[in-house]
């Protein structure tokens, strides 16, 4: 990995608290971030105390469904966070470029969706670095946010670029149920200021549910942000 990546990563990392995957630590970080709300305009009036939430999507991009999701988010003026599998970037570079150009956060989800705690240190590093390099080659920006598959954190990898783990506190189980009503019910019951919502953009039901979540929560006064806005102090 190029030396320049190291300096860029360290510079961006300054002052940022490492975000581990344990649910407890995620909730603490989210709770802290929730205290700082940004004014937004709702129904023509400025809202000083509006809650925030982050939509995050793993395992993409999907040639079939990600474009539909991006169209819906653009129409609604919403930014999301995408944690990409390196193997799915191949042949979908234009989609990744579109994500970046439209202001979405792009993060690393390994190359082959491996459990980095179950493979050798060498293989885990290669999985992460290979995807990071592919993203850099595609958009010219090296991703510093990592969501390891299954949320399993490994801190012995000594990566050339310091990466920050991103967890979640609402798991929609969309990959399992593939049922829009079930997804919506989970979010409705668990949503709070600062929530990080885990979804996947490879299923039609997930895309439909995500856009419905945006519509419903926007009516309740929520503002959707990328995860870095919740995690950075």
Automatic annotation (TrEMBL):
Signal peptide: 1-20
GO cellular component, one term: membrane
GO annotation (BP), single: carbohydrate metabolic process
The NodB homology domain, residue ranges: 51-225
InterPro entries registered for this protein in UniProt: Glyco_hydro/deAcase_b/a-brl (IPR011330), NODB_dom (IPR002509), Polysacc_deacetylase_ArnD (IPR050248)
One Pfam family it belongs to: Polysacc_deac_1
A GO MF term: hydrolase activity, acting on carbon-nitrogen (but not peptide) bonds
Alphabetic keyword roster: Hydrolase, Metal-binding, Signal
Domain of life: Bacteria
PANTHER family per record: CHITIN DEACETYLASE 1-RELATED, GLYCOSYL TRANSFERASE-RELATED
Protein name, entry field: Polysaccharide deacetylase family protein
Species name: Candidatus Blautia faecavium
């Amino acid at each position: 990995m190029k030396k320049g990546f190291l300096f860029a990563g360290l510079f961006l990392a300054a002052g940022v608290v490492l975000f581990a995957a344990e649910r407890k630590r995620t909730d603490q970080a989210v709770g802290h971030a929730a205290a700082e709300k940004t004014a937004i305009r709702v129904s023509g009036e400025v809202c000083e105390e509006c809650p925030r939430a982050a939509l995050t999507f793993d395992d993409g991009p999907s040639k079939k469904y990600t474009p539909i999701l991006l169209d819906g988010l653009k129409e609604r003026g919403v930014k999301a966070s995408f944690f990409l599998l390196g193997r799915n970037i191949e042949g979908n570079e234009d989609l990744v470029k579109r994500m970046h150009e439209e202001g979405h956060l792009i993060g690393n989800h390994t190359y082959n969706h491996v459990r980095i705690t179950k493979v050798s240190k060498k293989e885990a590093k290669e999985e992460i670095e290979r995807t990071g390099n592919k993203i850099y080659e595609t958009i010219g920006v090296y991703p510093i946010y990592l969501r390891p598959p299954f949320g399993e954190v490994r801190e012995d990898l000594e990566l050339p670029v310091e990466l920050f783990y991103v967890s979640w506190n609402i798991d929609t189980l969309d990959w399992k149920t593939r049922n829009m009503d079930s997804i919506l019910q989970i979010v409705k019951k668990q949503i709070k200021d600062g929530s990080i919502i885990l979804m996947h953009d490879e299923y039609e039901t997930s895309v439909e549910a995500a856009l419905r979540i945006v519509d419903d929560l926007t009516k309740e006064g929520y503002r959707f942000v990328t995860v870095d806005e919740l995690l950075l102090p």
